[in-house]
Amino acid sequence: MYCIRPPVLPTRSTQLHRFCNIPSTLSFIRRRLSCIRAMSSHIVGYPRIGPKRELKFALESFWDGKINADELQKVAKDLRVSMWKKMASAGTRFIPSNTFSYYDQVLDTTAMLGAVPERYGWTGGDVGFDIYFSMARGNATLPAMEMTKWFDTNYHYIVPELSPDLKFTYSSHKAVAEYNEAKETGIETVPVILGPISYLLLSKPAKGVGKSFSLLSLLGKIIPIYKEVLAELKAVGATWVQFDEPMLVLDLDAEQLKAFTDAYEQLGESSSGLNVLVETYFADIPADAYKTITSLKGVSAIGLDLVRGGKSLDLIKSTGFPSDKYLFAGIVDGRNIWANDLEASLETLITLEGIVGKEKLVVSTSCSLLHTAVDLMNETKLDKEIMSWLAFAAQKVLEVNALAKALAGEKDEAYFSASVAAQASRSSSPRVNDEAIKKAAAAALRGSDHRRATPVSARLDAQKKKLNLPFLPTTTIGSFPQTMDLRRVRREYKANKISEEEYVKAIKEEIGKVIKLQEELGIDVLVHGEPERNDMVEYFGEQLKGFAFTVNGWVQSYGSRCVKPPIIYGDVSRPKPMTVFWSTTAQSMTSCPMKGMLTGPVTILNWSFVRNDQPRFETCYQIALAIKDEVEDLEAVGIQVIQIDEAALREGLPLRKSEQAFYLDWAVHSFRITNCGVKDTTQIHTHMCYSNFNDIIHSIIDMDADVITIENSRSDEKLLSVFREGVKYGAGIGPGVYDIHSPRIPTKEEIAERIKKMLAVLEMNVLWVNPDCGLKTRKYTEVKPALTNMVAAAKLIRSQLAGGK
């Protein structure tokens, strides 16, 4: 076996130099030299949005008709080639291809299998952009497919809709095309494909399919397509293929585990000549799944997450590892941005090498780097000390290869010494650990579960008298469209190009426009539109102690939607009020109730890069106490409705059932901390985004909010089934009546029909009418007619109820 010798890796002090100095030829990278041990390194996947969000801007230009398909594809190809070259220049042995996507990798698999829902009018052949983006975003006449969270991440995927009579056909050759594209640049890659079992288990039955239908019953229909893909990859010279099977880390039953054995035995018949890597990530692999995966015939290698899967390491130590398989050891964190403790990782790898064997161990990332920011070298304003503690995707590639090189007997002592120094700097920094904050948090939490004293039914009665709202009150979730002019104002203020007085004047004018529009539409509980906010998490992080921020630390959430997570590096507190000025300004412009808009502690936690040197719940409690101060200040100045968004509460739920109760306990407690001290007449709202809430409904009830607004429209009213099945929910609830993630404008009749469905299972006096989520990403040309129809639908149903219809 041979190794690919990388160029000399930089020391820690200079490692931030980009992989941009790529020689005109990569021949020196491909030279095969003998070494003490074969250097084997692997990257599960790499961010596809580009270091400066190039894909986002190209997609949005394409959707707006400003560029054509050829121009979009040119941007995409440049990004792919750049990714491959960066990994190759660092010496990576196993470079992934087919991890790029124009929208989502699960949707790509749907296209590969030809599993297009009938409503999109696809008649066969390759699935083109029109059909592909209609499935993802909807179009003028058709709704999009459901979108939900990818396991416990902030990434979203498009949920396949499958039925017993669906005819699968090989309809996208993307995996082969991208392998060939890389090969043309002189780079050998490992094509990555979502595995057949995970694909099926991540799907849902199509509308109208009976409850007895098993998604796994379709395995025999999709395996032939996978075999075609393997045959085509072999024909063009591929020697490895990676099947991502993240479902293996869940609590699977015997039938589901047997399906893995069946699937890979069948695929093994077609994979002769190909090395098959089955990759798992995001959690420990259960003992029964470990036994299954290590017994799979025709599988050459197994990838395990050893960052979030410490128990997987224990399994390897206690039960051993098959001698005929490679272990792709995910030792570099693919989901957070902290620099790797290289010495500790190397020690773990040496232990594994003693079990697996020198030639069978490959150093890898714990999961795809899709979930991290792209390149730390794009951060020109980040504090230098904090910067030394971090590693984005580009730097994680360096870390993987430095560990592989060290394991091969060629340790870069300077690089490792710099790593030790950075770890020591972080652990001893007074900026990280503030004893005063820790003591204050401990005192506030001692002996209390922070529940409001009065039951929600009594509170709702008091609020109804105070607010004087009609039945089926209408509201929106918070944000209104962020126009180019508005973004320009914020940008110029941040760059000191306009004065604070000019900035405040411009934001007040925008708030006035938003309030006037809502009053004209007849919305009952107003919002100020959040024109002063760049992001619902970053805005608050910028005003809290213990947070740091990037300029280009973007991470893909879905499609062209990117977020820039703050970095929680230290103990958290609130130095001063954060929203009081803007909320009181907005309330002074109207006699209607105005919601104070806050982001909840669990969402701030889950949508940030969180410090990994203390338990997450301790950090969350600190944030909760900061938000509690803000809530009480808002109430004190007369804000009667306060929304504390917990969009990401479900997202943080551990994947293993044995760990879920503990998480829900501290997450729900954190929310209650924020509002436990307000008066009965102060109405507390919360909002939750795309997720399946049915299995945590009792925890949602335990949050004790007065009103909860929740995603509903893309999931075929799946949420309502929990109420049909007898769960009693006495607080106010607003299941979203239309999908804001699609440009499609719903009709009044369509929304009215949705409200009627809700009234079939919910009491009239608790139901609210609202969109699915905030309106930030939409245009006013879409928002105005959609909200007009929403209010008209609510009034129509009110009149029908009043008339006894």
From TrEMBL:
Its cofactor is Zn(2+). CDD domains: CIMS_C_terminal_like, CIMS_N_terminal_like. The keyword Phosphoprotein does not apply. InterPro entries: Cbl-indep_Met_Synth_N, Cobalamin-indep_Met_synthase, Met_Synth_C/arc, UROD/MetE-like_sf. Residues 472-795 form the Cobalamin-independent methionine synthase MetE C-terminal/archaeal domain. L-methionine binds at I477, G478, S479, E530, D645. Pathway: Amino-acid biosynthesis; L-methionine biosynthesis via de novo pathway; L-methionine from L-homocysteine (MetE route): step 1/1. Transmembrane segments: none annotated. Zn(2+) binds at H687, C689, H698, D702, E711, C773. Keywords: Amino-acid biosynthesis, Metal-binding, Methionine biosynthesis, Methyltransferase, Transferase, Zinc. L-homocysteine binds at I477, G478, S479, D645. It catalyses: 5-methyltetrahydropteroyltri-L-glutamate + L-homocysteine = tetrahydropteroyltri-L-glutamate + L-methionine. It comes from the Eukaryota. One of its GO terms (molecular function) is methionine synthase activity. Residues 41-354 form the Cobalamin-independent methionine synthase MetE N-terminal domain. Pfam families: Meth_synt_1, Meth_synt_2. The keyword ATP-binding does not apply. 5-methyltetrahydropteroyltri-L-glutamate binds at K56, N154, R561, C562, W607. GO terms for biological process: methylation. The active site is at H741. Its EC number is 2.1.1.14. Gene3D superfamilies: 3.20.20.210. Catalyzes the transfer of a methyl group from 5-methyltetrahydrofolate to homocysteine resulting in methionine formation. Belongs to the vitamin-B12 independent methionine synthase family. This is 5-methyltetrahydropteroyltriglutamate--homocysteine S-methyltransferase.
